[in-house]
Every structure is written in structure tokens, then in C-alpha cells.
């Protein structure tokens, strides 16, 4: 299973109409100039709920309702601050270990680590994650079902053997099915309406030139689980289209786009084409007709759009570099696990 930090951070799954809630902790130990050496963040579904970094050295809530956790767990924030401080030291050791394994001596590098769980609030099904990456590439991960480790790189095979011999897979699965799910349920209860909110996007048609692809751009929607697609006569188009990724905005909403090749659309048939937005679990479809008069083809405006998109990508890339996983309330674990 590949480790994609950004996608994991913003993931919201919906299966058969029932929400599959996700709790993820990300951490990154880095040697990137002008960034903290260690950052830890927690995400519940699409919302960031916790933050720690090696500069402030504070473990803080990122949602007001997260403060409710102290009503039943008064030591929650201090306990997790201590865990984060410990994981900061673990991260420094892991960078050295992986660089030695991969025979890397120069350059700027970072180690990423993600752990978390999914819980289907209808079926009760649980899935867990425990994944490590070096410079954005998979290094080792837990196979939740078989309780073994997957080592896509030969250099990680030593760690796989050691962790399996130590019983680390079973220990991590115990955490996932125990504390992780327990706190996931508590956070879902405390989050309440914040997790159920929905926001519809602003949809625009953009084009660099009259012969360039027409891009349908939707921004400002929540949650992230949504679809944006082109249709002809009400039927979804699968050819001559180029869907984009769902990206986060700074205000905890999301944006995405899908392009259509206009060379495949006869002028007389433009009225038959529509851009359709739909939130997962919402039967309603929000339709925007392909209309020449509504397309922004101004080169200057398009340049501004490109700059905006680049800024978003830079934000996402920076996020991927500095995001860290902290093991929240890891009471069932026997100390920290080092890559060794």
C-alpha cells in the first residue's frame, strides 16, 4: 500500500451511504531549511485536529471542539506532547538509519510516518495503517490483515525481519483496533455537526486559448469526497477528458478541476455538454452548461490562475514535507519503534 501523505490527510471515505470515519496521524522528520525538524499533525476525516512542531514544542488543538476531550481525559494534551517529543528524537534516528541503508550521504532528506484507522459507523468494520516513507517513497508498511510488514525496497528487509521477530505487527494492530478506534469514536462524537457540514463550490469555466482544453474548476466545497465530471446528453464522458486531483484550500475547503478537449466538440453541439459536480452521498447534481460566453479565455486571467494553482501545489508540497505522525495515546505500545 503506497504512502501518499496529502491524500491520506484529506481523505474521507463513503461506502454504501455510510460514512467511514478516518483518524490519521502524520509526522515528518526533515532536514529541509527553514522548516521545523519535526512536525506532527492529526486529521479526523477532512479536518486537522492536532498540531505539534519542534519550534513551538506545544501539542495543541486545531478545532475548538477538540478541547472537549479533556473533560474525560484531563492529561490528553500533555501526554501527547510528551509522545511527540519522544517521536522527534525517533525521527532524527530514522533519517540517519535510512540514509545509511540507502547509502545516501548528501542532500536534504525527510522521513515520513503515518498511522491511523478507519471505522465504518454502520458495519463496525475497522482498517488500520502503519506506513513509513523516505523522501516521499515507500520504505516499509504494515499489512493489516496478515499482520506482516511489506518492504518494497531491499534495504528495508532487515527492518521487516526485525519488526516481525519483535511482534511489532501484532502490537500495532492492537493499537489500531484499540486506542486508535476508541479515540476516533470520541472525536467523531465531539466533532458532531462540524463533521456533517457540507459546502457547495464556486464553478468556473477556464481556457488558455480558443483551441486549448476547457477546464471546469470547482472550489470551496466540503467535504473532499466529491466528483467533478463532464457529460454529453446526461451521460458521463470517459474520453477526451482529463480529471484533476482534489486539493485543499487554506479555509479547510477543497478544489478540483476536469478538462475537456474542445476539438472533440462540434460547435453546434456545445449545448449538449455540461460540467457536473456532486458530493458523495448527495443525490443532487449541480450542473453547469458549456457556454462560450461564460468561459474566461483572457491570457492575463489564465496566468493568474496558473499562479494560484502553483501556490496551492507549493502549499501541498510543503505540507507533505513537514507533516509528521504522532502516535496518540499509545498506551499499549512498549516504547518507541526505531528503524533498525
TrEMBL record:
GO terms for biological process: immune response. Pfam families: C1-set, MHC_I. Keywords: Glycoprotein, Membrane, Transmembrane, Transmembrane helix. The chain crosses the membrane at residues 304-328. The keyword 4Fe-4S does not apply. GO terms for cellular component: external side of plasma membrane; extracellular space. It comes from the Eukaryota. Residues 201-288 form the Ig-like domain. Gene3D superfamilies: Immunoglobulins, MHC class I-like antigen recognition-like. Belongs to the MHC class I family. This is Ig-like domain-containing protein. It comes from Periophthalmus magnuspinnatus.
